[in-house]
Design goal:
Helix content of chain A: 10-25%
Distance between the termini of chain A: 71 Å
Number of helices of chain A: 3
Shape of chain A: globular
Largest sheet of chain A: 6 strands, antiparallel
Mean pLDDT of chain A: 92
Oligomer: homodimer
Strand content of chain A: 25-35%
Structural class of chain A: alpha+beta
Low-confidence stretches of chain A: none
Order of helices and strands of chain A: HEEHEEEEH
């Protein structure tokens, strides 16, 4: 009896441990775009604070995008560039209330430059994952028309709202 | 005569080329702290928008600081952590006026954790460099009292105002 309990305990701990160790993979966006890996470690392009929907945003870039930023070659951005926009709800610092800072995570958004593959949407592949669980945005592949429509007013800036920050 | 002009031209081009190639080094802060290298490529800790002085800020960390962030070991931050705060004046996007974004570069600020070396100021060495030319802030080493005084209300958070952003 005692050895049975021990075996059950071992098996249970094994299952729990495995579940913790295996990260649940994030599903691709409905247009087939897979979430770019390692974006949390990408370098800074810019930040913003949108007062129309009370969100704080930080814009990061992969190596190709950052090289384009450093050489001021971002109109157009080179193929291979990926721009990540990370979005949080506004909150403020308890110890400095005039500082608006990122609170709850809202979503991650990506623009992936491939002028051939994504020729129909200005050379950019669009994708968004919602919330801390990173649920793909959009019911089907047509969601990109919403993204592209919103970005069309900035066609002259290669469909990108962001301007890289000035750095010393 | 012709060869003289050629020699003068070569020497002139050599001098101009050398001047361009040599970056003018940034002077250390009055307390002897040298500007940390490569901070433009550091990873994201957080961002903020201060409505009391109309500035946008991005907070980056060196590898030690980012490792502490990932493991949620930031109170206290480990020795070797460096936190960089990059500050810009507010501006807004022409094509999305409700988005406040970084404009003119104001200054870079650093907190360097060394609990022995900087024991008198909470274990942190402070430094700031002003403007795009990165002129050291402060007339003499006493400027750190201003920094430390302002950070004392957040003693319970290891003298750091910033809370690392939530990331998926």
């Amino acid at each position: 009896m005692k050895s049975k309990i021990t075996i059950i305990t071992i098996i249970t701990l094994f299952i729990i441990g495995t579940a913790f160790a295996l990260k649940i993979p994030v599903r691709p966006a409905p247009n087939g775009i897979a979430m770019p890996e390692g974006f949390k470690s990408w370098r800074l392009i810019a930040s913003s604070h949108r007062s129309d929907n009370n969100t704080m945003r930080v814009i990061l870039g992969n190596d190709t995008a950052i090289q384009a930023v450093r050489f001021k070659q971002t109109n157009p951005w080179p193929d291979g560039s990926i721009i990540a926009k990370l979005v949080w709800k506004n909150t403020s610092l308890e110890k400095w209330p005039a500082a608006t800072v990122p609170g709850e995570f809202v979503h991650s958004e990506f623009m992936i430059k491939d002028s051939m593959k994504y020729a129909e949407t200005g050379g950019w592949g669009f994708a968004r994952w919602k919330g801390i669980s990173q649920k793909p945005y959009g019911e089907d592949a047509s969601f990109v028309q919403e993204c592209f429509g919103c970005h069309t007013p900035v066609k002259d800036n290669d469909y990108v709202f962001t301007h890289p920050v000035e750095l010393p």
